[in-house]
Design a protein that fits this description.
135 residues; mainly alpha; 6 helices
Length: 135
């Protein structure tokens, strides 16, 4: 019990926590990306054109961020680079699509944004492909 209430830093605890955060965030985001990939034909003309390059390209970039970058997060491969497209996509969700209402419709996007920022700053941890290949 005293170990549980301790405020001492544990490398093993940090690494396991980063693994859990990466995998949970990756699986949740990948499910969103996969559902957009399956419905690509019906979404491509009505998706939000946030980059003013066309709704089809915007949808493809969001699918890349949510599906493929999430797979990189789960594996812990190129983790910090994979966070950047996710940050952009979740930033658009929070600040453009839901007009910054983080206590309302933008709550889920804000949670994904905060978790991605945490992974970006803390790194993937030692239980990752990045750590195994020495990056």
């Amino acid at each position: 019990m005293s170990k549980f209430l301790s405020t001492k830093y544990s490398n093993a605890g940090f690494n396991f926590g980063m693994l859990v955060l990466r995998v949970v965030l990756g699986v949740l985001l990948a499910s969103h990306g996969y559902s957009k990939l399956i419905a690509f034909n019906s979404l491509r003309f009505k998706f939000m054109n946030f980059l003013h390059m066309g709704s089809t390209l915007s949808l493809a970039l969001v699918i890349f961020a949510e599906l493929f970058c999430s797979i990189f997060l789960i594996l812990g491969l190129f983790t910090r680079f994979a966070c950047i497209p996710i940050l952009i996509a979740m930033g658009v969700v929070v600040f453009v699509a839901t007009h910054g209402q983080i206590l309302g419709p933008g709550e889920r996007g804000a949670i994904y944004l905060a978790a991605t920022i945490t992974i970006l700053f803390c790194g993937p941890g030692k239980i990752s492909v990045d750590a195994m290949i020495g990056k």
